[in-house]
Amino acid sequence: MTSRRLVAALGLASALAAVSAASPAVVRIEGPRRVETTEGHAVLAWEVDAEPDPARTFELQESRSNDFAGAERRYSGPDLAVFVSGLRSGRTWFRVRAVEGSGEPGPWSPPVVVAVRYPALGRVTALLALGSVVFVATVGTILGGHLATRRRSR
Amino acid sequence: MDFRSAVLDPSTGLALLGIFGALWVALGIWWGKKAKDLEGFLLAGRNVGLALGSATAMATWVTSNTVMLAPKFALQMGVWGMLAYSTAAFGLTLFAPLAFRIRRLMPAAFTSGDFVRLRYGRAAWVVFLAISLTYSMAWLVSMGMAGGKFLQALSGMPYLWGMTAILGVCTLYTLFGGLYAVIGTDFIQSVVILIGVVVVGVVVLNGVDMHHFYAALHDDHPALLKTFMPVALLSLFNNMFFGFGEIFHNNVWWSRAFAMREGVAPRAFALSGLFWLPIPVAAGFLGLCAAPLGINVPDPDMVGPLVASRVLGAAGSVVVFLVLFCSLASSVDSLLAATSDLLLEDVYRKMLNPGAGERVLRRASTWVVVGLGGLTWLLCAGDFGDLLQVLFLSGPLVGSAIWPVIAGLYWQRANRPGAVAAMLLGSAAGLWAYFAIGWFVASLIGTAVSMATVVVTTLAFPQPFDWNRLDERPAAS
Fold this sequence. Notes:
The structure holds 2 protein chains of 2 kinds. Chain A is of the alpha+beta class. In chain A, about 35% of the residues lie in helices and about 30% in strands. Chain A has a 5-stranded mixed sheet with strand order 2-8-7-4-5, with no helix packed on it. In chain A, strands 1-3-6 form a 3-stranded antiparallel sheet, with no helix packed on it. Chain A is elongated and about 85 Å long. By secondary structure, chain B is mostly helical. Chain B has helices at about 10-30, 40-45, 50-60, 65-85, 90-105, 110-120, 120-155, 160-205, 210-220, 230-250, 250-260, 265-275, 280-290, 305-350, 360-380, 385-395, 395-400, 400-410, 415-435, 440-460.
């Protein structure tokens, strides 16, 4: 092998090593960028653009603002999904990144916003009133009918 | 979705499945020898006592949904969600007075279909059967699929194997032993379920620091601690009416009322409701413990088994395995038996072969049980989606049957067109609400519309009914 070829081969090998060491996995949260819910919960699952690595973990952040000011860590671990529930009314942003076994973090994923809009108070109150009426009528009919049956059977 | 629950070794799972499966089938064959005639096979000789009666009602109502959905409700909706699930106990308790009335009016009947046919006529009967069979198949298939998935998640067993094993075992012992086998195995299964739930609940409770419990919920799930949690509050009524509809209309419960000795059914149903009430509360608590224990939940459907097996380790996985297996078996066998009765009595005997004698019917019952088990297996093998959603869709259908049943039992002037209209309008309105508003109001709306229809039609077009027409005994006709 000529010295020029040797230098080229060594250069290629070191370049490949540098690429594999310096490129933590890229992560993307599956599904639409905006999730709307009336129930305050959602499943956030993500996919990884790299070969599986048991040493790799993921960090999920949440924030009440889209610039992630004051963001908090929601999850850190090896799972590829998190179920979030009991979210406050309004919008909450989430983003995730991979952390390689060496401790080096990858880039943050594009954020996903979960917009929670609980049913309006007036509608909820009306439906609860309806439920109360149907419940009282159902129980009253059964108990009234039962007492009448027992009276007649004596 | 990546799911890393603590799992049993597949060979341990297979061994447990083999031991308990063989036990149920052997008991089914042994108890089946008691069934000397068709009435013995279908209704256990109408001689079931209080202990077996309470246990079978309780065990049947503890389904895999109770063990899975109660923790999921708690995780999604907090304490209100847990309580919402437990309202299903009221259905069992309220069925006690209905059972008293049913036994008094129809001492010789076989199915809930008999009641609707005799009380409201053929049109209402057909609508009722369509609702009941749709619901029963959705419940049966959701149980079969749940069986395959639980065994897969807990022991790594392939889905098809686990599902086939659960359905195969239940079909076999129902086939050999009829309702005798179903009620007998239900008794043992109810004991296993109660012990398992108490063990898991106590260990998890001991493992949680209550100060940390509150702080973790406050940080990770702030809305779960709110008193006014709209969806959870609405689901209180929705779940309650779904439960009323399931129990009041379905032949699973009517066949038990017919199978119990005179005077036993009301006490048995009242007791089973009391026994059942704490189970979803204990199971639901597991869902609330996930965050305080630092357990990530990738799939809310599996939060209960995930927390239990994580806290109890390998021993916990065995307990969870047994509780789930017993919960599934006690519901699948009851559904197979009661739905087969409905198909045999209401479809085969009443529609297809009215002149069939005892031997023909006994042979037909074998084919109906095998056919139903086979059809369920085929639908489960497809694994074509989230059948729990289909089960929830049937909520408004069964909710719409509540008022035709209770008015038919107690109101002499409740009439045929009113019952048909109530079931159709209630179902339509409930299904509309499911898609337009959400699952958490579908059963409520369906029940409310059905109730309004029954009340208005009874007041507007009263038709006096002769109660003696419900008693089909030869001496009474």
